[in-house]
Amino acid sequence: MPGETRAKSLFESSCSAVMTTQLPLPLALKPHARFATFVEGPNRSLITHLESLGSGATSEVLWVWGAAGSGKSHLAQAVCAARPGQRVMYVPLATAERLAPNLLENLEDLDLIVIDDVDHVVDSPAWNRTLFNLFNDIQAARPALLLTAKNPPGATCFRLADLASRASAATVYQLQALDDADRRHALQRHAEARGLELSDAAAQYLMSRVRRDMAGLCAWLEVLDHAALAAQRKLTIPLIRATLAARS
């Protein structure tokens, strides 16, 4: 299938439909990765900017960087989910070994392109060339482009100097880590989105015994959700204790 025809057939549906029914690739959005479940903490200006990007009110190249587990992928998917009915593509490069660089070809007709964990492919000449071509291709059509990484563009060691130059022109934000109070609040929002009630005491108990970054906490929350469903019990400290012990 020619590149342009392939791109249109794959990507012209809404964000959720594209990623759950048409692509034979692991590109589905997590159901709880939404702005409503993200606690902004010290990131108010970034969230405002991303909400504007998600609403289609702005079209630009945006680069968001922060430590692993800080919520970059959550926000990347939240931006996609905020554009229902538009032509959106989400590419998680943490799974780049299962993806081909030509996935990013002929995308200039999309409304939004989100490339998550771009630093995972900095050593790949093929991905460097494809990303550089993408920057060039979107200049005329001006779809919104969001990239996330662990470092700002200047500290992301692309092999291709011209790609590094293109990336340096993006609007850059650092995603700041949440403090413990905001992290607990975020965990409770995620629990609520799953239909669970997580008390302050239960949330604090979990946070004191597992990885404290949001990615780790949410992974444990998914485990606990299944445990609570299987036991037909509320998400209490005894249930959390028993589940952690069973997994140790």
Please describe what this structure looks like:
With 248 residues, the chain is α/β, with parallel strands linked by helices. It has two domains: 3-174, P-loop containing nucleotide triphosphate hydrolases (Rossmann fold); 180-247, Helicase, Ruva Protein, domain 3, CATH 1.10.8. Helix content is 46%, strand content 10%. It has a five-stranded parallel beta sheet. Helix 5 links the parallel strand 3 and strand 4 (144-149). The protein is elongated and about 55 Å long. The termini are far apart.
Helix-strand blueprint:
Blueprint: H1 3-11, H2 15-22, H3 44-55, E1 61-65, H4 72-81, E2 88-92, E3 112-116, H5 125-141, E4 144-149, H6 161-168, E5 171-174, H7 180-193, H8 200-207, H9 214-231, H10 237-247
Parallel strand pairs: 1-4, 1-5, 2-3, 3-4
Helix pairs in contact: 3-4, 5-6, 7-9
Defining key terms:
248 residues, alpha/beta, Rossmann fold, Helicase, Ruva Protein, domain 3, 2 domains, five-stranded parallel β-sheet, 46% helix, disordered N terminus
